[in-house]
Design goal:
This protein is α+β, with helices and mostly antiparallel strands. Among the domains are: about 120 residues, Tumour Suppressor Smad4, CATH 2.60.200; about 160 residues, P-loop containing nucleotide triphosphate hydrolases (Rossmann fold, 3-Layer(aba) Sandwich), CATH 3.40.50.300; about 50 residues, no CATH class. Strands 2-1-10-9-6-7 form a 6-stranded antiparallel beta sheet. It has a 5-stranded parallel beta sheet with strand order 12-13-16-11-17. Strands 3-4-5-8 form a 4-stranded antiparallel beta sheet. Strand 14 and strand 15 form a beta hairpin. Helix 6 packs across helix 8 and helix 9 crosses helix 11. It is globular and about 85 Å long. The protein starts with about 25 loop residues before the first strand and ends in a 10-residue tail after the last helix.
Length: about 525
Amino acid sequence: MSQAPHDLATTRPRKGKPRDREAAPVPCLTILTHPLPLRIGDRCLLGGGRQSLALSRSEPDFKAPDRLLGAPLDDPFISRKPLRLAPTPSGDLVLHRDGSSTEVTLDDQSLAVSLHISRAELERGAVLTIAERVVLLAHLVVPRDVQGRQEFGILGFNDHIQHLRAEIRRVADLKTPVLLRGASGTGKELAAAAIHACGPPGRPFVCVNMAAIPPNLAASELFGAVKGSFTGANRDQLGYIRQAHGGTLFLDEVGETPAEVQVMLLRTLETGEVAPVGAQRAVQVETRLVAATDADLEGMMELESFKKPLFHRLAGYEICLPPLSQRKDDLGRLFLHFAREVLAETGELEHLTPLDVPDYPWLPASLMERLLTYHWPGNVRQLRNLTRQILIANRGREQLQLPPKIQEQLADTPSPTTSAPAARAKRKPSQWSEQEVIEVMESQRWDIKASAAVLGISRGSLYSLIRKSGRLCMAGDLDRPQLEESIRLHGGDIRGMVDHLRVSEGALRKRINDLGLCLEENGS
């Protein structure tokens, strides 16, 4: 379990852009449901200097991210006369009807003449329902070459998942211990298996759930024991660490490790030796350690229930797994994948490949809309279980319906202002990601006091997070040209300016008054 320095001699310089510099995100439309289910996951990027996009039955082409060829929506219930999506200088999108007869809703708002999709809404993901049959997600995506595959058995093309794959590739060939962090159900064991699979074949991969081991047996289970070393030790016990010799040991729920075992584990990480219970001498071992947790280890260290030296050893490299709530564009792909598994069992795979566009789609738009509004506390694991329940409940039917029990479950969606305040209070300011802070502030209309209360941090701490952010600012930092441009773009509409500039209405009005500017408002 000793760490090895990175071999710089094996690293070759790459031509072109630096590895850590990504292209700027561009607007994208991703199909979340379609009368032809295999179209789910196809997408169309609005980048490349395109001034506007015509959206109709016959244009534009949507294609899978790992394929070269695509096709239009091609649904006879969608008008041939196109809708038009036009970007604004501030990075927003405006959807214009332009004479199309197609029924369209944007997050439950019906399209009359035009609908505005702010940059903040694109970052969160805005739901477009076309003709009550096709559901599209308008969101932002970083253009990248997917190279024709979904690596490591990890499904999806969401930017967070692409980053996760990059992180796995970055650390997989090193001996450095890895700490996987993420909520329950995000796929930490899958990520650990991916790290292991990048090495030579034939090596052992041993998974251990620390929460499932009784505390009094944890030492012997991990480190082994000699016969007679304690009551019930009727034979020599190898232990999980030595079982993983030459391969990878995955310690899930590592925050549940008993205090005395933490000391032993730290010594093994420092020396590369295992001391079996009751043995006279230690045994050398070569095992790659990958640990995982959804616990607040920093809070546990403050309470001295988790040892800081062990944390720093385990976290040789940290990888964070995204929750499903940050992967809306993957929701349809994941549902389709899990549905295919069940349909293969029930002998109903024909639902995925209808011969023609059906009048009544097997996966109705209303069902996908319900899935998109749910907060998914159990993440991908919960989606898999729920998909299985839906499909089994609808076995033999031509169209999916939500069973009453699942309807009740999906209706249990906490509002952003009240969800999990106790859990939030346990997190330090540094543990909030930039995107999470933006989402909370947007839900509070950029109000500092209300946002700080939801995050469970002080206003001073929130100010510090805003100053560190590249996507947020304080109203007092806005200069005259910025405000004049925003007034011009939004016609003096203070609400539009608030979403554009991401500052509270009160603070924005004060800054405008301080600079002696005038709003040409329309009743705002």
